[in-house]
Amino acid sequence: MQLSKFTDYTFRVLIYMAAHQEELCTVEQLATKLEVSEHHLKKVIHKLAKTDYLISIKGRSGGLKLGLPPEEINLGEVLKITEDNLTIIECIKHETTCSFMTGECKLKGIIHQSLDKFIEEFSKYTLQDIM
């Protein structure tokens, strides 16, 4: 299993923002500091700004800042909003892919339990824990 670049960039933005809570940041500044494309970061910022995790202040003296204290930002919750597709095998999303994957498929159950445990493990930690 591999997390998307979107999730990677999201965690990196949140970590940077938590380490620099006293200042407003710009997308350009984040792109430079994190060595990530501005284009990709704009998508991340747009998504985060729709949540309580990031505040986007418009205008000439605007910028970005963390919306919640790091101890209130749960990594599992962040993971859930950033990973659109935690489907690690095709048959979970498209049951018609495999004729054996109907009804009570044991493999599907194991995969669902594993994904739940993965998210559960992330949910044990906050942004503060990884600072």
Can you offer a commentary on this structure?
The chain is built from six helices and two strands; from the N terminus they run αααββααα. It is mostly helical. It has one domain (5-130): Arc Repressor Mutant, subunit A (Orthogonal Bundle), CATH 1.10.10.10. It starts with a helix and ends in a 9-residue tail after the last helix. The model has no long low-confidence stretch (mean pLDDT 88).
Core attributes:
single chain; 131 residues; mainly alpha; Arc Repressor Mutant, subunit A; two-stranded antiparallel ribbon; 6 helices; 2 strands; 49% helix; 6% strand
Layout of helices and strands:
Elements: H1 5-19, H2 27-34, H3 38-49, E1 54-57, E2 63-66, H4 75-82, H5 90-93, H6 106-122
Antiparallel strand pairs: 1-2
**Annotation field: number of helices:** 6
Specify the helix fraction band.
40-55%
Shape: elongated
Average pLDDT rating: 88
The SS-based structural class is mainly alpha
CATH class type: Mainly Alpha
**End-to-end distance:** 25 Å
Assigned CATH architecture: Orthogonal Bundle
Which superfamily, in CATH terms, is the homologous superfamily? Winged helix-like DNA-binding domain superfamily/Winged helix DNA-binding domain
Write down the secondary-structure element order.
Answer: HHHEEHHH
Report the sheet with the most strands, covering strand number, pairing sense and barrel closure: 2 strands, antiparallel
- What fold name stands as the CATH topology? Arc Repressor Mutant, subunit A
Rg of Cα set: 18 Å
Q: How many strand units?
A: 2
Low-pLDDT residue spans: none
Proportion of β residues? Answer: 5-15%
The structural domain count equals 1
Looking across the biggest beta sheet, what order are the strands in?
Answer: 1-2
